Amino acid sequence: MALELFSILVLVVQLLIIWIVVLLSAKLVASGIGALRAFVLAFLAYFLPPLVFSFFSISIPYAAIIIPLIVWIILGELLLREATLGGRLKITIVAFIIYLILQFIGLPGIIIGLAG
Question: Tens digits of per-residue pLDDT, 96-112?
């Protein structure tokens, strides 16, 4: 029970990190993106790629990178209409890179290892 709660906490921490990155990159681009839109983008882009993977048995090389990138770009285009095209791409690419770093360093495993 404690491990499940801790895993949920780790997911929330990752989501908050991505949300903060989206907000900070939006501020750097000076796009005026609101905190709610940034949170929706971070939330959907964080949880949609695993759902896409669960519905399709994909054997594309580098699918673990390509599909989340496509999801990030599509959501960035849909949710960040206030920014210019270049601004939207900068925001989503920076947030996507942080997303990849969090996925590949295994933050949940690190935190559980430190707590355990």
Answer: 888 888 877 766 556 55
Task: Please report the pLDDT score of residue 56 as a whole number.
Answer: 67
Sequence-separated (6 or more) residues with CB below 8 Å from residue 28 = 90
Two structure tokens written together for 6 = 């801790």
The answer to whether 32 touches 94, Cβ cutoff 8 Å, is: no
Q: What is the pTM of this model?
A: 0.72
Tokens coding 87: 């601004």
Q: 57: which DSSP letter?
A: -
Distances (CA, A) of 34 to 5, 46, 89, 109: 30, 18, 17, 32
Q: Are 96 and 27 in contact (CB under 8 A)?
A: no
Distance CA 110, CA 64 (A): 21
Helices 63-79 and 85-105, packing angle to 10 deg:
140
Nearest to 17 by CA among 101, 86, 76, 89: 101
How many whole angstroms separate alpha carbon 91 and alpha carbon 44?
Answer: 15
